[in-house]
Design brief:
Keywords: Isomerase. It holds the Pfam family Asp_Glu_race. Belongs to the aspartate/glutamate racemases family. The protein has about 240 residues and is α/β, with parallel strands linked by helices. The chain folds into 2 domains: about 5-100 and about 225-235, Rossmann fold (3-Layer(aba) Sandwich), CATH 3.40.50; about 105-220, Rossmann fold (3-Layer(aba) Sandwich). Helix content is about 50%, strand content about 10%. The chain has 12 helices and 7 strands. The strands form 2 sheets. Strands 5-4-6-7 form a 4-stranded parallel beta sheet. α1 (about 10-25) crosses α12 (about 220-235) and α5 packs across α12 (about 220-235).
């Protein structure tokens, strides 16, 4: 099997969540049947959103360095369990001789292939991802419109994402319901969890009756990347 290189640390718990999903999806009956994985948990990578909003240093050289480290350590391909980091995907790819899977492209292809009549999707993401329009750009090739939250709610969601990074997954229900109500007003049926911190939150409250009442199809981008990674590693 191919060896996966995980360019992680954005944040650490999201990296661990991706790693665990790969393990469970592999269905190995012994240690030897699992996929070899190298994790570069580089927590020193500057905040991607802060840079994209013009408030911090560029993370690009850190991302490139970590990707090269993974390649030199023997990874056969690289994944980044961070949606916002994919704003730098094309630049990182230029420095590598091995493939790097694209989480946003994988998500766009999944929705196109599995929800063929979909014309628009809702997006929950960081302000960096929203401002970059990366999801809009990829989904436009599939003629799918990406609906973002209003600016006020984008800021509130960003605050929640930072709290999740600190380990606080509690007491966010009322804000989350407001986000889902906003998307519901636009007749959205599919909601992309476009930040790898968000599955950590949704896993904690997914059975809540008020959340379930919206009856959305939630697209866990971390899970999609994990599935594609397992599939690619076994080719």
């Amino acid at each position: 099997m191919k060896k996966i290189g995980i360019l992680g640390g954005m944040g650490p718990e999201a990296t661990a969540n991706f790693f665990n999903k790969v393990i469970h999806l592999t269905n190995g009956s012994s240690d030897q049947e699992h996929i070899p994985i190298i994790i570069e948990n580089n927590v020193l990578i500057p905040d991607r959103t802060e840079y994209l909003l013009g408030n911090g240093p560029s993370p690009l050289k850190y991302l490139i360095k970590s990707a090269i480290v993974l390649e030199l350590m023997g990874a056969d391909f690289i994944v980044m369990p961070c949606n916002t980091a994919h704003c730098f995907y094309e630049d990182i790819k230029e420095y590598l001789d091995i493939p790097i899977l694209n989480m946003v492209q994988i998500t766009a292809d999944f929705i196109k292939n599995n929800y063929k009549n979909t014309k628009q999707v809702g997006l929950l993401a960081t302000m960096g991802t929203y401002s970059s329009k990366i999801y809009e750009n990829y989904f436009a090739h599939n003629n799918i419109e990406v609906i973002a939250l209003k600016k006020e709610n984008q800021k509130k969601l960003q605050e929640i994402i930072y709290k999740i990074k600190k380990g606080n997954k509690q007491n966010h229900k009322s804000e989350l319901i407001n986000f889902l109500k906003e998307l519901n007003e636009k007749s959205i049926e599919i909601v992309i969890l476009g930040c790898t911190e968000l599955p950590l939150l949704f896993n904690a409250i997914e059975k809540d009756e008020d959340i379930a009442a919206f009856n959305y199809r939630y697209i866990d981008t971390t899970l999609l990347l994990a599935k594609k990674s397992v599939e690619y590693a076994k080719l």
